[in-house]
Write a structure and sequence with these properties.
The chain contains eight helices and eleven strands. It is an alpha+beta fold.
Amino acid sequence: NLGVNTDELWVSQPDNGEQALEIAESLVRSGAVDIIVVDSVAALTPQAEIEGDMGDSHMGLQARLMSQALRKLTGTIGKSKTILMFINQIRMKIGVMFGNPETTTGGNALKFYSSVRLEVRRIETIEKGDEEAIGNKVRVKVVKNKVAPPFRRVEMEIMFGKGISASGGLVDAAVKCGIIDKKGAWYAYGEEKLGQGRDNVKLNLEQNPELYADIDGKVRAIFFPGKDKNNNNIIAPDQPAAAPAAKAEAPAKGIKAPAGIGAASVLSAAPAASASATSRQPAAKIADDEDGGLF
């Protein structure tokens, strides 16, 4: 239901934190997987803590484990195409009077080595009717980003059993761009009425893939000019053929032109122009399927 191919999904439940990180390192070195998700950092219990008694103090044991593992993983990940994702939990600092008392488990090593850090918070429960909850509305903040501008925020809907609502994100983006006109509770796309209320518009788009793809293509053209739905550059269409070369002027009296200079220059240029024209590909169209969306 969430779009994950379960035939290619591997699930491992190691006994301790050292074993979990060793498995992650082996998978990264193999290059056989595209993405590894560790759920979660707070659950990576060191072996010494498992073998100890309840109430024993293990100061900084998990932080040292994460620091050592990330030092080994960083170089390997940089040479592979594997994405390593850590899910973490929030804890509260004791005795903090000023500033943010929240912190994450596992020490500071993960904060330093990570390329992108996202803070996800639930801000609202989506309910259908009086008591039935069908999803959560969350706010995502980019806390750290090495590959793009940080500190951006976005709100999205995560529906139970379905995942992120692509149609809801498309409706919000289209209204913001002026592609969908919102007057009161009614939504319109040009002369076509999409429905009354946001939920009805989402349902309308989900039931009409062609309309969904049309609106999605226009939204992507505004946010990502020159890119298709896969974030690839759109190749420009072929230019019209150049006008034929003018005839070589007759040489002045007393000066002889080299034999065949005019014909040779035209013939040698023609195949090159033809080759460059045929090597180009036609312009790609910006389109999307019903499962796509912009958030």
